[in-house]
Write a structure and sequence with these properties.
palmitate; OMP_efflux; transmembrane; membrane; four-stranded antiparallel sheet; signal; disordered N terminus
Length: about 500
């Protein structure tokens, strides 16, 4: 039978401890203020009137604000159903994402474990024994009287009184680590989607370059046929035939390397979507044009960028966790109080268990204080301070890298679009020149050198245009990846304890 007075005293001690636990040692986390420019300097279409954006602090234990949905699922803007399906497959089956998801689950599990430290630990145990003492142990006692039985049932309660916030700081640190793991997952999704889109664009660009090389080879093969015909008719030379054949062979030599790059890119896309390298060959072999580029990409403001970039968010959460760990280490400067108790029943016969006279109980208040080992405690505090300083520098570096990444992506995207225009005109003019050179050669108004030079120029210009179009599409993907705004988080539906 549980003693009512004992339970009352235990409850009173617990309530008193809860009332006392109102402070937590160590610094409270405050988000560093990061002042950013009013606009991206390389955003040529941005308005100069955009106001300066300063990232300000938020409530200590509040989760980061959700990203706005501008430019959500950017790959759909390319209007390519196959690309959209490949991205969806990668988000669902990519193995790197599964690894990151496992890390996210692990962080949540550790957070659940840390939260349980706020509550009493209750254990129950039961023992039963049948013993016999030897004649030497009990001289003069009969054999029957040397036999004995003992039964014990008890419940133990242990509760650390978190007077100085060690447990609360530990929970705070674990929560921030869980947020960081979620942001790591977001960042990897951004990277995987960007890699799928970039690889797909590269594949279509390689196929276009392969088409250009094959088409030019056919034109040069026709030129060689004409030269051979003139030579057979006695109007040409072997020198002309050799030059035409050499140019054709040089063009044909480009084909195997391009075919190899096409195959390698197909394999990469298959593995990114969680499949064997050969899985997409049949589907990706039919040639399709490069995805259409958006007319303009609005990067928003640098302040928006820092609120969207998952790598910056992850770095900030790790700074938060490191700050909380300073409090965990600082709490060791103070005594640690543990409230404990035991309620049980002990008897020599099972029928006597839980009778009034078989009751056992124990209540205690334990104090653990390492004041004689203050040097080690202060060393741990210094190490925690150093960790926090390192995480602060890492956070500040992540901000600078995010701004640099976006500025670089903006300038590359803008310049490749201008390059496209020039190379498109160059490709069109070189094709016209090659056609006119063939006409002049057939009419006898030009020699073979002009034809071969015009065809070589055409091949170079058309390859350069195909390559520039590929880089333009890749730069658009890189810009979306740098902005990382509004990309959906594809975490399976589950209880997210990190948000509590």
């Amino acid at each position: 039978m549980v003693n009512i007075a004992f339970a009352s005293r235990t409850l009173t001690l617990g309530v008193a401890a809860a009332l006392l636990a109102a402070c937590a040692v160590g610094p409270n986390y405050v988000r560093p203020n990061i002042e950013t420019p009013s606009k991206f300097v390389r955003d040529e279409a941005a308005s100069d009137a955009r106001a300066a954006d300063i990232v300000t602090g938020v409530e200590q234990n509040a989760a980061p604000a959700p990203s706005p949905q501008a430019d959500a699922e950017f790959w759909r803007s390319f209007n390519d159903p196959l690309l959209t399906r490949l991205v969806e497959d990668a988000l669902a089956a990519n193995h790197d994402l599964r690894i990151a998801l496992a890390s996210y689950d692990r962080a949540n599990a550790l957070l659940r474990n840390a939260k349980l430290d706020r509550f009493p630990t209750v254990t129950a145990s039961a023992t039963g024994s049948d013993s016999r003492a030897s004649a030497d142990q009990a001289p003069g006692v009969s054999r029957a009287d040397r036999d004995g039985e003992s039964y014990n049932v008890q419940a133990d309660v242990s509760w650390e009184l978190d007077l100085y916030g060690r447990v609360r700081r530990s929970v705070e640190s674990s929560r921030a680590e869980a947020w960081a793991a979620a942001s790591d997952l977001d960042a990897l999704q951004v990277a995987i989607v960007g890699e799928v889109a970039r690889s797909y664009v590269e594949l279509r660009g390689l196929q276009e370059r392969l088409r250009v090389a094959t088409e030019n080879a056919e034109n040069q093969r026709e030129t060689l046929r004409l030269v051979n015909a003139r030579f057979d008719a006695g109007r040409g030379t072997e020198f002309d035939t050799s030059r035409a054949r050499a140019q054709l062979e040089a063009t044909l030599s480009r084909v195997p390397a391009l075919e190899a790059q096409v195959a390698v890119t197909m394999h990469r896309l298959a593995v990114l979507t969680g499949q064997t390298p050969d899985a997409l060959i049949a589907e990706l072999t039919p040639v399709k044009p490069l995805p259409a580029l958006p007319t303009r990409l609005d990067p928003g403001s640098p302040g928006d960028l820092l609120r969207h970039r998952p790598d910056v968010i992850a770095a900030e959460n790790r700074l938060h966790a490191a700050t909380a760990r300073i409090g965990v280490a600082t709490a060791d400067l103070f005594p640690r109080f543990t409230l404990g108790g035991l309620i049980g029943s002990q008897a020599v016969d099972t029928s006597s268990l839980f009778e009034r006279d078989s009751e056992t109980r124990l209540a205690f208040l334990g104090i653990d204080w390492s004041f004689l080992d203050i040097g080690r405690v202060r060393a741990r505090i210094a190490a925690a301070d150093a960790d926090a300083a390192g995480e602060l520098a890492r956070y500040q570096q992540s901000v600078l890298l995010a701004l640099e990444d976006t500025e670089n992506a903006l300038v590359r995207y803008a310049r490749t679009r201008v390059e496209d225009q020039h190379l498109e005109q160059a490709a069109a003019d070189s094709a016209t020149a090659a056609r006119l050179a063939r006409v002049r050669y057939d009419a006898g108004a030009a020699d073979l050198f002009e034809v071969l030079d015009a065809e070589r120029t055409r091949l170079t210009a058309e390859e350069a245009f195909a390559d520039a179009r590929t880089r333009s599409a890749s730069s658009a993907v890189a810009l979306y990846k740098a902005l990382a705004g509004g990309w959906p988080t594809r975490v399976p539906v589950r209880e997210d304890v990190a948000a509590r």
